[in-house]
């Protein structure tokens, strides 16, 4: 780039270009995800989110109304991978556990997709309101949709036990980083976990 | 109690009786667990712990030297139930998964034993130093002890996968409180989880 040309990050509107323009809503959500991740739910404020997004706090209120609603909307993006679970289940019983294990490990292996999920988990583990919002989201967006796809008794309980296995692996492997689990190849984890998920989802 | 008699809590030295007496070390650890639970690792300070314990900060330094060491020592008590895992494994392969599941559910079902474990988990999930201290503790105190008791390949990895299942159940059932998992009887959870733990620990 010749010197003197103003630099501009690719693929992202310059922060001050149009503070209340069409990019503002997504910029606010991005700032909110960063703030919730960094400071936790309790210490994140609408004012802080607005400052980080380079907009007036009134604009955050205009779009979302409350901190709860900012949080709830900001978790939609980290939840995108979870939204693909119904498709994975709909591909049939055979290999269901393996597809689910490989999908989740893929999300967690990639730092870019891991960060927002981890931030969300931290908020939910340290604040009751965040936990309640996540609970509502999981119930409405995931459990109610997939329960009909599993032809077993208590499908929702079974999905939760499978998710519990994956969640625990994520905590020990990527957060606490305990060896050997943190260091083994992702495919070995898939191989160990897939039969357990299959058992939870379709029975022994 | 006749009026005029000074009240005194049973089984616990009165706070100001002997601030640096033999009860002081345990009182500091109790204050530390409360502070880590309430404020998280980052925002807990030796000064704050000392204030809560009713002692001089110098006494905390005298006993523990650093915040890291206060944390590491304070997690010994919430870890007591985990310390019983080697005994549960040593009772033989048959029913190993069920014993482990029932033991852990028992710890989490009781609010008194749940609180310190949950506090520890919150610190480890939100702070790298706390995660590293917990990792070292788990490795030295648990994994190195039990690995020899399991006559399977990769015993440490298998224990971690079993613990992952239990940890995930704890998060969904007791922290996020997602239904139906949060509401079913503990014995139903034991019944669902025991075969999975057995599989992890002793093979298919």
UniProtKB/TrEMBL annotation, chains A, B:
PROSITE patterns: HTH_TETR_2. The keyword DNA-binding applies. Keywords: DNA-binding. This is TetR/AcrR family transcriptional regulator. Residues 14-24 have a biased composition (Basic and acidic residues). The keyword Chloroplast does not apply. Residues 45-64 bind DNA. It comes from the Bacteria. Residues 1-24 are annotated as: Disordered. Residues 22-82 form the HTH tetR-type domain. It comes from Streptomyces zingiberis.
């Amino acid at each position: 780039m010749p010197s003197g040309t103003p630099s501009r990050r690719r693929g992202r509107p310059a922060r001050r270009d149009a503070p209340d323009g069409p990019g503002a809503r997504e910029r606010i959500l991005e700032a909110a995800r960063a703030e919730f991740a960094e400071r936790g739910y309790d210490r994140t404020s609408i004012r802080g989110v607005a400052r980080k997004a380079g907009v007036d706090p009134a604009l955050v209120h205009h779009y979302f109304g409350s901190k709860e609603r900012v949080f709830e909307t900001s978790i939609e993006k980290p939840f995108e991978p979870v939204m693909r679970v119904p498709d994975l289940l709909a591909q049939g019983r055979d290999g269901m556990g393996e597809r689910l294990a490989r999908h989740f490990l893929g999300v967690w292996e990639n730092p870019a997709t891991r960060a927002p999920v981890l931030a969300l988990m931290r908020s939910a583990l340290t604040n009751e309101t965040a936990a309640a919002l996540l609970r509502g989201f999981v119930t409405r967006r995931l459990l109610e949709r997939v329960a009909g796809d599993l032809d077993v008794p208590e499908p929702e309980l079974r999905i939760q036990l499978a998710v519990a296995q994956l969640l625990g692996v994520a905590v020990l492997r990527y957060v606490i980083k305990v060896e050997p689990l943190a260091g083994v190849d992702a495919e070995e984890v898939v191989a160990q976990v897939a039969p357990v998920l299959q058992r939870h989802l379709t029975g022994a």
